[in-house]
Amino acid sequence: MWSSNIVQLGIKELRGLLRDPVMLVLIVFSFTISVYTASTSAPETLNRATIAIVDEDHSPLSTRITTAFYLPYFMTPELISIPEMDRRMDNGLDTFALDIPPNFQRDLLAGRSPAVQLNVDATRMSQALSGGGYVQQMVSSEISEFLLRYRTSAAPPVELTLRARFNPELNKGRFTALTHIIDSITMLSIILAGSALIREREHGTIEHLLVMPVTPLEIMISKIWSMGLVVVLASTFSLLVVAQGLLHVPLHGSFMLFLWGAVLQIFATASLGIFLATVAGSMPKFGLLLILVLLPLQILSGGTTPRESMPAAIQIVMLAAPNTHFIILAQAVLVRGAGLDVVWPQLLMLFLIGAGLFAFSLRRFRAFLR
């Protein structure tokens, strides 16, 4: 009866999920459209940045500088006047505004060091961070070639040979797609398990379970395996069809080893979702708690920023989070092709953390039913 109860209760949860269109849309969106857009929208280099130029010199050198900006890095420069510069940037029309002062060419030929003003709209972070260096390099190159009267490239004294492993093209989209799938596994396992419990309470079916010959352990396990099955199937589809098929992200390691890690991660985070649901009691409160828990899990676990760049105290504290070990495992297996001999510590930690969260959530769940 114990296993039969768990199977039947899990099937009931799956039927309840099928009758929840909002959750179904969230699952489909998180593992398809969200992964694809996050990967394809990550800029590799400066791309089609808008730039305006105030040419107060009108000399051959200023003309050369104006024509140095071209696609795909920059849009065709807009020639504007000084009063227009601030107004256009305030309106968000230009990311960069370059002001070439009067007598610029004459001062250079006379051996002086005239200043060129570059205004940058720093609200456009992806372009502002790298665009300033691009503009400075292009202006300096044109000035040097003009003064030397020929194009030259200085040979570096040391030749540096670069070998990029695991991602030879340095394609950020590959890393972004895998990171987004990992984050979606964590997010959906918490949301689905927690919402399954809250749905029982809001629909009044929790009282039906209390009078049935089932134990809190059976109820909790049924919610975890049913919602975990949905997340495993959705993440498998996302990795094989969206990431590997549409985005051409190579998966180097054992896919089954990654799935074992994903199952342990879902076991831990689904238990956490049930605990949050027992604390919240309603869907609005559950959403607020989810924000407080999910954001630190995703931001501080090493998926967005390497753990080595974080303070030592944060690194130590986040070792108690399952996300930290799952991200290490997923990146090692899917990106670097690591085997069980490399990632067994992460599998062990995921199991121990999941067992601890399950025992703690079960105790809270029993008190919640009472």
Helix count from the secondary structure assignment: 15
The helix content, as a percent range, equals: 55-70%
Cα separation of the termini: 23 Å
Poorly predicted parts: none
Give the H and E element order: HHHEHEHEHEHHHHHHHHH
Description of the structure:
The chain is mainly α and 370 residues long. The protein folds into two domains: 2-41 and 170-369, no CATH class; 51-148, abc type-2 transporter like fold. 66% of the residues lie in helices and 4% in strands. It is built from 15 helices and four strands. The protein has helices at residues 2-18, 21-31, 33-40, 60-66, 82-90, 104-109, 125-148, 172-203, 206-210, 216-246, 255-280, 283-299, 312-317, 322-335, 340-369, and strands spanning 51-55, 78-79, 96-100, 117-120. The protein has a four-stranded mixed sheet, with helices on both faces. Strand 1 (51-55), helix 4 and strand 2 form a beta-alpha-beta unit. Helix 2 runs antiparallel to helix 8 (172-203), helix 10 packs across helix 11 and helix 11 runs parallel beside helix 15. The radius of gyration is 28 Å and the shape is elongated. The protein starts with a helix and ends with a helix. The model has no long low-confidence stretch (mean pLDDT 88).
What's the gist of this structure?
The protein is mainly alpha-helical and 370 residues long. The protein contains 15 helices and 4 strands.
Labels describing this entry:
mainly alpha; four-stranded mixed beta sheet; 2 domains; 370 residues; 4% strand; 15 helices; abc type-2 transporter like fold
